[in-house]
């Protein structure tokens, strides 16, 4: 390898120090799935008008995306277990590249189903990346800083979210009238179809730039040495790996782990639902906006998401992560309830502000839940099942879209997201009790 690993692996799989280049390169994967997620929020608005979809049907973009994670997470974990985290990253990058390339024929075929297939393919690649990178980030250094390390890596995710939305704003959306106004102004069905096909061609542009970055990352990972970051076999031990059935039985008896799965489901569902409908809400409460202008609220939301992570990292270095997240969840729920019933355009600002409270959710739940797996033979599959909880992003937005369709009010549907915040708060209340018990025994680490 051209770039060597300077760290020494310990018997438990963690390292004696953080290999800075390897950790930074791994962290650069996080904005790549952030960019894909950010573009999904753009595509939902684009596809709704071009394909004349209901709010629930437009949310199928997220169903395809997070459904891909759900389907492939365990197969990905088994492949990673038989190979290495690095191989998982390389497979993920390769499939991500293929998924982006599929947008070329999709923009020509111009069917909703084909675009959903492209998004599903990208999600398969991202499932390999997240199954590898989330666990790998927590392992690339001393055990006592594993959760903090994952939070630092996850700080890069909203940067990708921002870049994805900015690319969508300028490469997919245009200035002038809104898409719906342009479609309504088409003189006949043929002209409307031609306009729709022209708009769909724009969806190809951001994926060209992503392809270039992915190829560069793939090459860098090929030439960089990474540690295995797996526990070594102790003397007299018969095996260091467990079968799928044995692993699932172990995990099913681990109540703190199962509660983490539920919390992760709610968290990803909450985040995805809020992001999916932010632009649509802006267009609803302020009809003078077009899609490009409404995207500014999405950009502001992602900026808040990033800003909110930074003080959270500081606070969790000083105080219990569970206590910090309890406060975050309470404030987040209040903001979303306020957004659901606030008059006029102030509602969108409550939604934007709620992003300040979302940042630390995923990495903290992931890190805390992964720590409940004391036998590291089950870690790869346990991490994969945690990634499968991301299917909340496939389900909650559709539920919120359905509520919007039934009530005839997208604004009122944000109650669904507010309730998710409260559910996550309950998880952290119980997590705080567990942390206090461990602290009394001197077992808690950051």
From TrEMBL:
UniProt cross-references to PROSITE patterns, sorted A to Z: MFS
Keyword list, A-Z: Cell membrane, Membrane, Transmembrane, Transmembrane helix
GO cellular component, one term: plasma membrane
Transmembrane segments: 20-39, 59-80, 87-104, 110-129, 150-173, 205-223, 257-277, 297-317, 324-342, 348-370, 382-403, 409-430
Pfam families: MFS_1
Molecular functions (GO terms): fucose:proton symporter activity
Membrane topology note: Multi-pass membrane protein
Keyword Ribonucleoprotein included in the entry's annotation: no
Coiled-coil region list: none
PANTHER family, per the entry: L-FUCOSE-PROTON SYMPORTER
Designated name of the protein: L-fucose:H+ symporter permease
Species of origin: Enemella evansiae
Taxonomic lineage from the root: Bacteria, Bacillati, Actinomycetota, Actinomycetes, Propionibacteriales
